[in-house]
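Hi L., both proteins are below.
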Amino acid sequence: WRAIMKLIFRNRFRHTTSGFTLIEMLVVVVIITVLAAIIAASWTAAVNRQRINTVRDQANRIIQQARADAKRSGIARVVVFGGRDGTTLEAAIVAPSLDANTGRTGGFVNDFTTINNWQSLGSQEVADRNVDFSVSPGTERQIIFESNGTVSRASIDEAISDEVIFAFNVRPKGTSTNANRCVIVGTLLGATRTADGTDCPT
């Protein structure tokens, strides 16, 4: 019995002091590398989703602010997206242009170079073109709120559909429309809602 116990302990001792083989170490390194890649991809996707949600939430707040400003001041307000050239992830709240026919304010802004209060949407990483965005309808890339906070007739004439007057879409660059996040103005009263994926109009 003692001889058997000595043999067992001797073998255990030899085994525990022999260390890891090269193959065992390589297997561990491969497993750790695969797990790290999976975690990194998940982390990147989560960060991108958060950035996109932040941009959408900012756009939503700007639209709501313009509507509230119009009601409070009794002066129409226009929200313009896209910066001076239509490609920059920026937005501005401005007074509408003069209508050449009536001499009254209430039309779409025609000269974007005169706008000097552009607000960047999202963080610097987003501003560095890590996202794709679009405004629907894209012909004007703006929405007008009348002095009582309702959507202007000009915006309604440009409406996408009966349920969607205006939409701002954003998604990580290079992804499909399933990754869309959007703000939708869907009623004449200027109420907004947010949507995801294919629920966003394009």
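That was the first. Here is the second:
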Amino acid sequence: DFGSLSTEILSAASKAGKSAPKILSLKLDVMNYEDVEAAAKEVEREFGRLDILINNAGYLSPFESILDTPKEDYWRNYEINVRGVYWVTKAFLPLMLKGGEKTIVNLSSRGAMGLRNGGSGYQVTKMAVTKFTEFLMVEYGDQGLLAYSVHPCGALTELGTGMPKDFHASESSFGLRNGRADNWW
């Protein structure tokens, strides 16, 4: 719920003694390039540039073998996880190169670096996101762009609940004891 998130952000700024940030609420469907372009134009109109872009949209088809996965589900991984990241980056990167922090964070997955029976639709796309992130640095690093591909862990988000259970993060996954990471690496 964006309304409650806005309230939470404004409250946190107030508690920290900071001025209220300007919040711009946009509808952006990464499957629709016109939405993406319209959002980039609105950000440019309101702020003139963009400091940080976080590509967080994702899709996880069921973990089924290639022959058992419906072709539409399998391909949707590519449409959202790869094309969506590309489209959003393509639309917003010109705003980032105008100045500011020039930072892109692309959410990948630990699955990008491994193989799991039934995971090819998702895992290959996350490897593509990781490689795409490297290309951003090669092509725009000399202009000050910093691009990161991060794995947020096997969190039980709406998307994450579709992963096999042994992918889900737990305290033992990170060597946590009493809420503290002892051997996190």
